[in-house]
Design brief:
The complex is a heterodimer. Chain A is built from 11 helices and no strands. By secondary structure, chain A is mainly alpha-helical. The chains are: A mainly alpha, B mainly alpha. At the A-B interface, helix 1, helix 3, helix 6, helix 7 and helix 11 of A face helix 2, helix 3, helix 5, helix 8 and helix 13 of B.
Chain lengths: ~250, ~500
């Protein structure tokens, strides 16, 4: 077993642990923190089911972003939808036999990679070219786009320019899952691709990528509008009621 | 009073995206609260020792108490969706008035003190420790937010800058850097019962004068009852309704509606204020204390229902928070929601044909309607989503023949704040208020020119005061702003139904 294989195997175990534990800790923090007041942005659905549907529309269609700005909506929808497609396509490296639906996604997934990079470059162009968005951009915002563009373009490179031995790659991936390590091919684009993916997994729970769990805990979207019908009281606020005169 | 020298923004027919002018409003800040304003609210009188540490500690406490704050500080991706949505940004061009930039003033400190990324790579993620410079920026720019929630409508994660502004103000209050306007007013509520500091006997005399005015005007004894035990309804009105124009005319409207409907009602000296400034400063404890004056008044007077007068932020605390802060309301009549808005109350009477209204009484006006920000985006009226946008218009249309809406992007859930909400309706912030009114003034100007609109109605005491003040800067008469119940008051035919 080469040093390279061992290094990448350990890197992915570490990255997965950081991603899973980091996200679990943030999600549990969000879930534990109370919302003392009813603050849905209205007009809002009156029921929990309705509020759930509202969150779903935000996650799937980016409803509020659509209201705000059609260009940002288009570019980020392009990026996110392509990313989903690409991720689905990548399931073939982790499953044996490969499910039929993953096989069906296969041809679209390959071009999804292009759409993803185009979406990212469009968003970056806005970040650099529009004065307002340039003003609010931190170095980390640019670096995050570069990281994702790096992942996308190194992946496209392997698919369309310098092909790598995907049978070996798959053996390596399955080996990680079943703790039976297989050697990793040493093509530069593969190593760059996997290295950047590991980096993304590591920074995920410490970065703005927390918008992914965040949207499911955003009180302005998740709360139903039922303030008069149901008394909503946070545990920390309840004792204040003992201080009142009546 | 002479108009202060303020460079009034020009009205353009098509809204232009301003190019940034960094520091354009860096001189704008409200007066700092004196110890006398701070202490009754439980805050230190002046900037405490170790205030940097104390501020970070308070932030830590709030992060554990408010999911909104924790999630909002983590989730922003700097996409830019909110950057052109704030009326203060559109009116002042100061980039720190873009909602995301305003949030980042707090977020930079959160990152530095609470996130591994900010601790390890501060420069890359724009993290900054708490410092005098940061505190100055907070004090200036968190008092250039009217907590109107317009940005939250457009944010893909629902991030509400109002929540961030409230947290920042709460932190500043706790290190002794409070804002005079809000805190002085809250202290008056504790001492006297209302924001204006109008004591019981003065309120009684005022209401008696009003009853005489109403008798002279209508020839009918319309009552404005105060502290009447056993009345059916406790009316909680903004105290501006007792002394300011055009607010008083809406108070007359409420009284006439109660009179014609034949329902007994009363005001309370103890709870003679609808507005709850505890919300503006993000203080749950103060908001709780102020709200429970209403609970006590309702119990002491033995009323069966609570109705709120025309007031936007008051209606947010009333509709969305009152059950939490001062409930449960199991001692009131369960047939009615608690509380009700006067708009819901009158709307219901109109629907049931209980009021005799002559629309022609308002024929000298062509009306438009300004959705007050907190009514539109933080509350509801009636039993369906969006009722808060529909009911007021239905009441207006029931008493006026000529009604026109403004541009759809400036009303409803997308309405622009008047420019004076959220605890900044104070003279030292007049430049901000005039400039912040720009987007509303543009939309108003368009319907004035194209549709012949002569007047604009609103259901918020702050909107009414703010527009009375800023309309003249844009070349309009201050009396252009009307209360919805002022229109009802004109149209109602007393002596024909009761």
């Amino acid at each position: 077993m080469s040093v390279l294989t061992v290094a990448y195997a350990l890197l992915f175990y570490a990255a997965t642990a950081i991603l899973v534990l980091g996200l679990a800790s943030k999600i549990s923090q969000y879930a534990r923190t109370p919302s003392p007041l009813k603050i849905p942005t209205t007009p809002a659905p009156l029921t929990k089911t309705g509020a759930g549907m509202r969150v779903l529309r935000e996650v799937v269609f980016f409803e509020s972003l659509f209201k705000s700005n059609k260009w940002i909506w288009l570019l980020s929808a392009l990026f996110h939808a392509s990313l989903v497609l690409v991720l689905m396509r990548h399931l073939r490296y982790f499953t044996e036999p490969v499910p039929l639906w993953v096989l069906l996604v296969q041809p679209f997934g390959a071009y999804g990679g292009f759409a993803m990079v185009i979406g990212l470059l469009g968003l970056w162009y806005r970040r650099l070219g529009i004065q307002r968005i340039r003003f609010i951009s931190a170095p980390s915002d640019h670096l995050m786009i570069l990281l994702l563009v790096g992942i996308g373009s190194s992946g496209l490179m392997m698919r369309f320019l310098s092909r790598t031995d995907i049978i070996e790659v798959k053996a390596f991936c399955l080996g990680l899952l079943y703790f039976e390590w297989h050697p990793l091919p040493s093509d530069p684009s593969l190593l760059v691709h996997l290295g950047l993916v590991a980096l993304l997994m590591i920074v995920f729970p410490f970065s703005k990528l927390l918008h992914v769990p965040g949207i499911f805990f955003s009180p302005t979207r998740t709360q139903p509008d039922d303030a008069r019908e149901r008394r909503h009281l946070a545990p920390w606020a309840a004792p204040l009621d003992n201080q009142r005169d009546a | 009073m002479a108009k202060a020298k303020i460079e009034v923004p020009q009205i353009k027919t098509k809204r232009e995206m301003p190019s940034l002018q960094p520091g354009a409003m860096a001189h704008s800040k409200p007066y700092v609260a004196a110890p006398d304003h701070q202490k009754p609210l439980g805050f230190p009188g002046e900037l405490v020792d170790n205030w940097e540490e104390k501020a970070v500690e308070k932030l830590r406490e709030l992060l554990g108490k408010y999911r909104s704050l924790q999630v909002f500080l983590d989730s922003c991706v700097h996409c830019g969706a909110c950057t052109d949505k704030c009326h203060y940004f559109l009116g002042t061009k100061d980039p720190l008035n873009m909602p995301v930039a305003r949030q980042d003033l707090l977020r930079q400190v959160y990152r530095k003190h609470f996130t591994p990324a900010g601790k390890a790579f501060g420069g890359i993620v724009n993290a900054k420790p708490m410092s005098k410079e940061v505190l100055d920026d907070w004090y200036k720019y968190y008092h250039q937010c009217s907590q109107c929630r317009r940005c939250s409508v457009f944010c893909p994660y629902g991030i509400d800058t109002a929540e961030i502004s409230m947290a920042a103000r709460e932190i500043m209050d706790h290190i002794g850097m409070g804002q005079k306007y809000c805190n002085e007013i809250i202290a008056k509520v504790y001492k006297i019962g209302n924001n204006l500091g109008l004591p019981g006997p003065a309120l009684k005399a005022t209401l008696e004068d009003f009853e005489e005015d109403l008798l002279d005007e209508t020839g009918i004894e319309v009552k404005l009852p105060l502290d009447v035990e056993g009345a059916e309804i406790l009316l909680i009105a903004p105290s501006a309704d007792f002394f300011a124009e055009p607010h008083i005319d809406s108070l007359f409207g409420y009284a006439k509606v109660f009179h014609q409907a034949g329902i007994s009602w009363t005001l309370s000296t103890y709870a003679s204020e609808a507005g709850n400034f505890g919300m503006f400063i993000g203080s749950y404890e103060n908001m709780h204390k102020i709200s429970n004056r209403i609970r006590k008044a309702a119990i002491d007077l033995g009323v069966k229902r609570i109705v709120f007068g025309e007031c936007g932020h008051a209606w947010r605390v009333a509709y969305a928070f009152l059950n939490t802060l001062a409930g449960p309301w199991d001692f009131l009549d369960p047939k009615y929601p608690v509380p009700q808005s006067i708009i819901e109350f009158t709307h219901d009477l109109i629907r049931r044909g209980a009021l005799n209204l002559d629309k022609t009484a308002n024929d000298h006006m062509t009306l438009t309607y300004h959705d007050s920000c907190n009514v539109a985006r933080a509350t509801r009226m009636g039993d369906m989503p969006g009722g808060q946008l529909i009911l007021p218009r239905e009441v207006i249309k029931a008493v006026c023949n000529k009604f026109v809406d403004m541009d759809a992007d400036t009303i409803g859930e997308k309405t622009f704040c008047c420019g004076g909400g959220g605890g900044i309706l104070t003279d030292e912030l007049l430049e901000l208020r005039v400039k912040g009114a720009l987007p509303r003034m543009e939309a108003l100007d368009a319907v004035v020119k194209q549709e012949g609109v002569t007047h604009m109605a609103a259901i918020c005491a702050i909107c009414k005061s703010q527009f009375s003040k800023v309309l003249p800067y844009y070349g309009h008469d201050m009396e252009m702003i009307q209360g919805v119940h002022q229109l009802v008051s004109n149209a109602i035919q007393l002596g024909t139904k009761e």
